[in-house]
Write a structure and sequence with these properties.
Layout: H1 2-24, H2 28-50, H3 59-82, H4 88-95, H5 98-109, H6 116-133, H7 141-168, H8 173-194, H9 199-206, H10 212-233, H11 238-244, H12 248-259, H13 265-284
Helix pairs in contact: 1-10, 1-12, 2-8, 2-10, 3-7, 3-8, 4-6, 4-7, 5-7, 5-11, 6-11, 6-13
Length: 286
């Protein structure tokens, strides 16, 4: 279990890396599409080289990959939509609330049991993410609409997480991981096309220059995050794993402080302490 814990923490670090690269990219919508495709390419190559025996048809594995990637893509799409109506600092903490739904689904679908202290640890991690990212903002109908969309994104993510857990537990784990990444890149392209109905806007988006270095580094980071999380998820309850993955917020803030010269402040110090306390409780309950 300590190996699973370590793999998911490593996954959170890589998750923070590619999110930081999104921040510094010129066009965040198209950059996200580019790194999704890059990730799919890298994971496919990785699977071909290291797990060639994984290439055989297994229907449940394919179905789980289709479902998880679909819901994860919907999550990314609605998260991006929510940013149009409210500040990221208001919306992002809401999108991290998916573990609350996951605990419920895991109880009924996967028969997972989480201890009282385990639940407390999960809540502390989510509370720490909220504290680190929330800022004061004027409340209006538009902002409230953005928060509702962000909540919908978290809700949809929870269904993807269920399929994800069942996918890594299938007899062909590495085929599942590869197919999930490949389908994610396909859905990402399709959702981007459908969300830009005006041909003029789509033409402008498609013809933007590709930031190849960022795309390669972002694809490698997202690929590493995708693989390590799924390998860690095999032997860990999804209720704990999904919450533990949220510490990417903590690593993201640290990277912003070190590389982007962002401020830390008392609020983020308190949030960090709350997150670390939650992680300790989760670790003690594994």
């Amino acid at each position: 279990m300590s190996l699973s814990f370590g793999l998911i923490v490593i996954s959170a670090v890589f998750h923070a890396v590619w999110n930081m690269l999104v921040k510094i990219s010129d066009d965040k919508v198209m950059y996200n599409v580019h790194i999704q495709i890059s990730t799919a390419v890298f994971i496919t190559i990785y699977t071909v080289i290291f797990y060639p025996n994984a290439f055989y048809y297994h229907q449940p594995t394919v179905i789980y990959a289709l479902l998880s990637s679909f819901f994860f893509s919907l999550y990314q799409h609605f998260t991006a939509v929510s940013y149009k109506y409210a500040d990221v600092s208001m919306v992002y903490p809401v999108t991290t609330s998916s573990p609350l739904f996951i605990i419920i689904w895991a109880y009924f679908i996967l028969d997972e049991r989480v201890s009282l202290f385990g639940v407390l640890g999960i809540l502390l991690v989510l509370a720490g993410c909220y504290i680190m990212n929330i800022t004061k903002s004027k409340g209006d109908k538009k902002g409230f609409y953005g928060i509702l969309i962000a909540l919908l994104a978290a809700f949809l993510y929870s269904f993807g997480a269920m399929a994800d857990k069942m996918g890594v537990g299938s007899v062909n784990t590495h085929l599942y991981i590869m197919l999930m990444a490949d389908f994610m890149s396909l859905y990402s392209v399709l959702f981007t096309i459908f969300s830009h109905r005006k041909a003029r806007i789509l033409h402008k988006k498609i013809n933007i220059s590709i930031q190849w270095k960022l795309v390669i580094f972002g694809g490698l980071a997202m690929g590493a995050s995708t693989v390590t999380y799924r390998l860690g998820l095999i032997d860990m309850q999804i209720s704990y794993a999904s919450a533990l993955r949220q510490i990417s917020s903590f690593f993201g803030v640290l990277m912003g402080l070190i590389f982007l010269k962002e401020s830390y402040g008392l609020q983020r110090i308190i949030g960090s302490i709350v997150i670390i306390t939650g992680i300790i409780l989760i670790r003690l309950n594994l």
